[in-house]
Amino acid sequence: MLENYPAVVAVRRAVDEYLQTAHPSYFGATPSHPVLPLKRSKIFHDNLWGTNRFSWRELALIDSPILQRLRDIHQTGLAFQTYMGARHSRFEHSIGVVTIASRIFDALWRRDRGTITTIVRALGPAGDAERSVFKLREEMRLAALLHDTGHCLYSHASERAYSELPLIKAASKELGRIAGKEKGAGEVLAFCFALSKSVESLLNRAEKRIVGEESSEDYEGPISLTNVASMIVGRGPHPFLQFLADLISSTFDADKLDYLFRDASAAGLPLRYDVDRYLYSVRLERSITADGEGELQALYTSIGAPNIVRKDPVGHVKYPHFENYRLRLPKNAINTIEQIVLCKLMLFSYIYHHQKVRAAEGMLERMLKRSVQLWRDRGEDDEQILKRFLGATDSSLFSGLDSTLGDQIVKDYAYRIVNRLLPREVYGASASDESHAEEVLLKSFTTDLQMRGKREDLIDQWERATADELKHLRPELAGRSSDEALMLAGVWLDVPKPPKIEDVEEIVIGGAKGALAVPLAKVLPVGEWTEAYATFRYKVRVFAFSEYMDSAVSAARKALEQATKISSGRFYESIRRQRG
Amino acid sequence: MFLGDFVEQLAALLHRQKVAMPFENEAPWHELFYQLKQAKQEGKPAFLSDLRFDWDGPYPKCQELSEFLHALHWNACVDARNPHFDKITLPEGIADVWSRRAEQLDPSATLFLASAAEQAREAFSGSAVMTA
Description:
The complex is a heterodimer of chains A (580) and B (132). Chain A has 580 residues and is mainly α. Chain A contains 28 helices and eleven strands.
């Protein structure tokens, strides 16, 4: 499958080498695990979703370091420093996603049994259709289980650092051809875990050690890890199986259903949605996906998808396309959709974009980027650096990440993060500051910050200007490089990534009882909600350590003047964080 | 030039030409950029060749374009409350800033932008809104 994706192959090699080196008893040349015979299934209890049954295949992965390392990676990064209850990990989230994904699948099977049976019959030779369905269910569950295995310490905070490795960027671009959209660095790694030789050989060994009577409840036949990997990145292994990938990675996927509920519950926020109503409503819908550039055709061919037909433009469909089946919520589930959309916006407002969470995670990101530079200065290549990230979980921060670096700034940052000595907001600008005369210039600047490529250039220019001014104002920083001066002062321009609102504005929901599908924005005031969020909650901020606050106020202002062309003192007073 | 720069300059030009730009129905935007990617004309910005389409849905959809159109709305650079988010309305001040940036383009890029505006006029004429 991967012959046309060399960067993905290199990342998969790094994943395998990491597993073989770090965990030889599981993945080395002569692995000893699993030592004891494996039960065919076990029952787990999750605090959110209750009981679920896990197959021997799933247990082999859960009991291996691939999943166990997720126990030491907080789901919401450093948010627990602000919301003290938010200590849940990627591990319980992954288990939860398997549970909720299975419930969605089972709801579809109950409702659309005929359609699903027709689909599996169209995919392969006549046989036991029900057995084929349960094979797909098992592959979907494994995708749910493995979907977050690519996360490293403090989840997205570290992802922002390793996503800048050229190897990961190249792999992300290659996977974009498979998925049709850019995939995050964590998803690239999870995809590679699923396709690794280590996972394959672990499952092969585990199969030989299962004991007990075969159960009619679990599928135990062969599975395709290629199918599992493609679901992780949101592409069904066949156009008719797109709904399975939708279950793992789409607008209303099992991942979102779990993290919205889990993050809100752990943080103590009263945000809820009606999951039962979701399960009563969710269904399959026949749809089409355009393939004008032929990437989908190439993907399905490379993975050997059976009986695929790329249809020519016909009627109102102007592009070559594939017919597929998608996961849809009908219009009569509007209350649930509304709750999910609002939950997502509120979680961004309360947690993900909270200024202290941004401050802590921004520090970690800078510390990791400096570490990457230091490793690179020592001659390490991307694959070696990637293996360092794979070996790092949250507790690594307590030992300063890599003691051999011997870098005082990295040590200080680790100490500060662990002890919550965080920088403070110096300036914070949002669209609600538009009453001033510089409205156009500010909007233009903040929009430029949303452009890929240009954003990095603008931040770089702003940082250099700020560093120059800081070095001028603070003699102890004078001999330092710009990067070091900024790190010592704890100064940076923070531009959070907005929630992917286009997902909800664009989503089409199915009409009830055969009525035409309609865009969600026609039914719910999503536009107004997002506009209100952007206006009053979303902020671009400047942070600085308390010790450098006064210098940062003037240095950041001078650099902002250059970047925005806004010079009014009144404007800077209005966006300056007032204290006391 | 980045995708966002091109969208801004195109939007400013269309605003001056009183061509209505769709917002809620993004399809004409994506189809336009899909055509521009195939174009062989001189002055074609390099970013166009890197755009990836066929993300999802019945038309060739580009995630990066979708994100940027919504970023314009997010940052209140465009108004879409008219009242049903059908079209993009550009405030004069913003249109001025973006037009000034377009003035710095080299002649072949200017010609390409003008040609893109012509195609946009046609592509957008079939959408829900007809006039600015």
